[in-house]
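Thread title: Can someone regenerate the structure for this chain?

I was given the following input by a collaborator and told the matching structure tokens would be attached. They weren't. Posting the sequence so someone can regenerate them.
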Amino acid sequence: MFKALVLLDEEQLNYSLDLVEVASQLAGEEEVALYGLGINLSNKELKGLDYLLTIETQESLKDSRIVAGLIQQVQTTYQFDTIIILATDFGRMVAPRLAMKLEAGLVADITAIEVDEKGRKLIRPAFAGNMLASIVCDSTPIMASVHPNVFHPELLTKEPKVITFCPDGMKASTIEIIKIENQPELKDIREAKVLVSAGAGYETEIENLVPLAKQLAGLVSVSKEVVERGKAPREIQVGQSGKTVSPDLYISLGIYGSMQHVEGLKKVKHLISVNTDKGAPMNYLADLTVIGDAATFVEKLTMRLKK
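Best answer:
Regenerated them for you:
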């Protein structure tokens, strides 16, 4: 029996439940027992798990050190073969702390899994996204973090058995809130059916893409290079270090198509690539390629749609 634990993020439960597909693939041909661990989830209707381990507390646990300690206690009790964590901002703080406590390795931001005679292999981009690394895991627990929206299980119908886990000596958080700044809430590009996405080859202001995106009932997104130049917030970045998206239409404007960026595209139905470089890898992935200036293309398409 292959025992797998998924850490459930109460703010992103749907993406957390997608991780059951990771556990199922890691199990290979073995029978798998799927456990989910969450805070105050006993009243939530969750499907796709065999067991729901819930820790009931009056506090909202946002201290990654405390959460890592709780998972360590759960692991001591149940001895899981793998622990899988969603690679949100919070998950990225929990995962390495937990790996240190368990003296286990951690494979971050995995995009695929292979199980064969050589063992269980976790695949992730390496060398700034220029190649894929296949990492063989021969010790337990196998720890991995996964971007939201990368794995997609089939319809989840299984009702879990709820188990209340009572940790020993849970300490209060020592984190002190010094200042709170309210930022404008951006729509999540992972939910968009249409994305108008700018790369390094789009040399005008990102705001100029908003009218086109609105006409297409979509959102604006960008590549890593645009974020690094300070032209756009990381919340709208597509790629391995950004968000994984799966829109019906993806309009790529001046995006070269590095592996780091392409790994952020999953199940895109239609892709249009606009680039002055005929040899850009994104052109070969596209349904339709336009060789030309991205800014000019945006201007003309926006005018055409207005008519």
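The CA atoms of residues 85 and 91 lie 6 Å apart.
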